Amino acid sequence: MTSISGTIAIINVQAGDNNQYVCQLLSFLDQPTDEIRCCGKTKEHAIAIALEKLASEYRQIAESGQNQDWLAVERSESGEAIQKHYHVILHYERIGRAESKFEAMQDTLLGNTVVENAKVTLIEIDANLPVQGDK
Fold first, then answer.
1. Where do the DSSP E strands lie in the chain?
2. How far apart are CA 62 and CA 65, in angstroms?
3. Which residues contact residue 69 at a Cβ distance below 8 angstroms, ignoring those fewer than 6 apart?
4. How many CA atoms lie within 13 A of 62 on its CB side?
């Protein structure tokens, strides 16, 4: 088994202009982007955005290391299609204008664009891999 150890990232958050926080995340694992910079309303918001960008890059790396043929079907010796297991990850963000959090959520859900506009990552996994998804 291959082992990866080390510091995944250093996070620095500073107060910026206009009551915003600027987050700088430095990644030390083999990343396409060594530095991520983003802004948030609070320190936690800025960190969450930076971590999501880092997670998005790792999802792309994981997916790109697998078969990219979306229509490929693996078959058994008898010709029967082999069912595979996939970790399906949807990521959707938008800026919404609404009178309340509830209205912003309702506008998002009723718009039927969440799945259509989401970034979808499909990572083939072993059937016994204990991946926990929100249900």
1. 9-15, 21-27, 35-40, 85-91, 119-125
2. 6
3. none
4. 16
Strands 9-15 and 119-125, bridge-based pairing: unpaired
Distance of CA 39 to the CA centre of its chain: 18
- At 36, phi and psi to the nearest 5? -120, 130
The total number of residues shown for the chain amounts to 135
- Note the pLDDT tens digit of each residue in 52-104: 998 888 888 888 888 778 888 989 999 999 999 988 888 888 888 899 999 98
Nearest to 66 by CA among 131, 124, 121: 124
Closest among 5, 10, 112 to 54, alpha carbons compared: 10
CA distance 113 to 116: 5
Helix (H, G, I), strand (E, B) or coil at 75: strand
Residue with tokens 């204990």: 130
